[in-house]
Design a protein that fits this description.
The protein is α/β, with parallel strands linked by helices. The protein has 14 helices and eight strands.
Length: about 270
């Protein structure tokens, strides 16, 4: 029998890590970026935030504008050159870099090689903590029941499913209550919600009902776009469910105002 051998990634613990902040985190929820840095530093990493980073290019890519996407991707590739790992608190942006960048440069072997190199070094935050760094627990408290939404890109492009649940299991005071359909899309889909608002609203309506039916007082996920979409619908429906990025809870930052609320609103 061949003995179990840890994967090369599990054996290697990258130390110089670059954080891909993402546009939504930068503009709407900076606390997610700070939570990501805290988690990575507690796991033994030196974290840097390259100042030249820009949008991953996914809005242009989803709109069919390959020329603009290539220009954006080239700047991202340059900004993250030389880092041992690139980590994003978003399966959507992480999936764009890891799965779609190489295909943008099929007619440029040199750039394609650089895109493939970046793709191989890029990770979603939860996956990086658990699968690469071998983190098994966090020092955090969060009192109450939570439910977790599996964002489409993280789940289907990066296989992020059990990693966040594994870490949430170590949070003191937290109880996980699964939705009946945690893997069903919330209807955000980046530009999808703009192109097809009626369909998007119907989808998030079904998602909102499933969240409420779980009995959880807090909704967590790993993609801010999904979270903002679901938070908006829950608030319009008058729901008291709080919405947070999973990194905030794992980093023991669960006392911050939920997404879509300000200090003292409730």
């Amino acid at each position: 029998m061949v003995p179990d051998v840890p994967s090369p990634l599990a054996c290697s613990r990258p130390r110089r890590v670059a954080l891909f902040v993402t546009c939504l985190v930068d503009l709407f929820r900076p606390s997610v970026g700070f939570a990501a840095v805290k988690l990575l530093e507690e796991a033994g990493c030196t974290v840097e935030v390259p100042p030249l980073q820009v949008c991953c290019g996914q809005p242009a890519y989803n709109s069919g504008d390959r020329a603009t996407t290539r220009a954006i991707a080239a700047q991202v590739i340059e900004a993250f050159d030389g880092y041992e790992a690139v980590v994003a608190p978003s399966g959507s942006c992480g999936g764009m870099i890891a799965h779609h960048y190489p295909g943008l440069f099929g007619d440029d072997p040199a750039m394609k090689a650089r895109a493939e190199d970046l793709a191989a070094r890029s990770h979603e935050l939860m996956s990086f903590l658990v699968d690469v760094l071998g983190v098994t627990s966090v020092a955090a408290r969060y009192h109450g029941a939570v439910t977790y939404h599996d964002s489409c890109s993280g789940l289907r492009e990066l296989s992020v499913k059990q990693q966040p649940r594994h870490l949430l299991g170590s949070v003191q005071g937290l109880t996980l209550r699964e939705m009946s359909t945690p893997e069903v899309c919330c209807g955000f889909g980046g530009t999808f919600c703009v192109k097809y608002p009626e369909i998007s609203n119907a989808m998030v309506g079904e998602k909102s009902a499933d969240i409420v039916a779980s009995g959880a007082g807090t909704l967590l996920a790993g993609d801010l776009g999904c979270l903002m979409n679901m938070a908006g619908k829950l608030q319009r429906d008058g729901s008291a469910v709080k919405v947070r990025h999973v990194a905030e809870v794992l980093a023991d930052m669960g006392d911050l105002p939920p997404i879509g609320e300000v200090e003292g609103q409730r």
